[in-house]
Amino acid sequence: MSVTKLGTMHLTGHTGSKHTATVIFFHGSGSCGKDMKEWVRLMVKNFSFPHIKVLYPTAPLQPYTPAGGMPSNVWFDREDISPQVKEKLDSIAQIEKEVRQLIKNENLAGIPSNRIIVGGFSMGGALSLHTAYRWDRNLAGTFAFSSFLNQNSVVYQELKAANAGTKLPPLLQLHGDSDDLVDAKWALNTFNELKSLGVNGEFHTMEKLGHSLNRRGMNMIMNFIVKLLPEQ
Tell me: the pLDDT tens digits for 20-74? Predict the structure, then answer.
């Protein structure tokens, strides 16, 4: 089933004279780019960079199985919020087209993939993992907050099939130890599986944090971005 294109795009413009890098920040299920941008601003007031544009796209409105099939702004459909279910690959393939086009638009604007970081919260983080380790392995890096991949994910399958020694974007993964929607073990299992397949990165546990962002984690993400996307 086809889905509509991405919804309204919100952005934080670069504050310097030249735009030389981009961060794409994907929201969680049922949210939107505007809310994600505001949430990030509440965590860190100055989530902006002299040379980096930050994009907050909105997921298509489409039927979402965990919500009883009701329409929701989600990047893809899934059977359940659980690593045990199979991925809905046809749904993921639909959003792949949109994400590839989003990156291509930046490329056409003069920003190469190795000057782009993708990341996200919850489902948005899972989308980022598909993006960085399946659709564009030339990205500068990826981050995922409160996210996981399904067991036997197509991401793992494609990494296993990749040539040995293939350079992969580094990963920053963060997760609350009190998350009652996405178990922290699911996230750690995801990180360990990716690491076993050649992904270099860091996993950080956020103490006393539920299914949410926090200031400490967002500051880590800011440092990750600045390190990987220095001014040119």
Answer: 999 999 999 999 999 999 999 999 888 888 899 999 999 999 999 999 999 999 9
Catalytic residue among 51, 136, 146, 179: 179
pTM of structure: 0.94
179 is catalytic: yes
- What does DSSP say about strands 21-26 and 116-121: parallel, antiparallel, or unpaired? parallel
Domains and CATH numbers, the chain: 10-224 (3.40.50.1820)
Residue 10 catalytic? no
**180 a catalytic residue:** no
Q: What is the pLDDT of residue 11?
A: 61
Catalytic residue among 29, 122, 128, 147: 122
What is the spatial distance between Cα 126 and Cα 78, in angstroms, rounded to a whole number?
12
